[in-house]
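Q: Here's a chain of 227 amino acids. Please give me its 3D structure as tokens.
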Amino acid sequence: MFSHPLDRPVWSMLCGRQAHLAEGDARARRIDPGYGPFGAAADEGAAAQAALAGLVPEAGELWIVERSPPPLPPGVREVKRATLAQMVAEGPPPAPRPGDPPIIPLGEDHADDMAALADHARPGPWGSKTRFYGPFYGIVEQGRLLAMAGQRMLMPGMAEVSGVATWADCRGRGFARALIAHVMREMALRGDRPFLHSYADNAGAIGLYESLGFARRCDIHLLAVAR
């Protein structure tokens, strides 16, 4: 029914550029749990859905993200469903603006600060290896990590902006805008077109993304399940 890699983003990432992070087989795959909870079945048939159910962890959740509302795999319970806005960048990334704060690459020395910021801001699932998805960048003042952004899913010629997070007392200073624009420029330099996901009812975030050159491609469906 759907043919674009973004129609089945988790399956596309785990069968393509990030297949080295996958667990499972041709029926169903999930990402290494240290990176996050994402998984997908090859199709909606009984064998694939049973294999996907087998990848649900004993503790925690599995997140399924599909263009069509995904079915509930057998023997698991639904934790939540949500609708996401899938957005793709149109045209070149924004140029730096006068007054943008200095942005630095984040590394192992920032791992604890990144985890604390993710726990505070909840930009999406964050695990012990999430920072290894790819380059993350941050804004640091007086030794404190104030905000960050990076990447997650990789598709053919495309990369997902993700992990955008700012401490509550640092919001309103343009950090998210500056960081997203920086990540977009880095992606463009290596030949990737940026895309991202936002909860469909988060009008503020969607407005920011539109101002940075993203356009809504479609709605996409999230199903979180657990044992």
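Q: Can you summarize the key feature?
A: The two ends are 29 Å apart (CA to CA).
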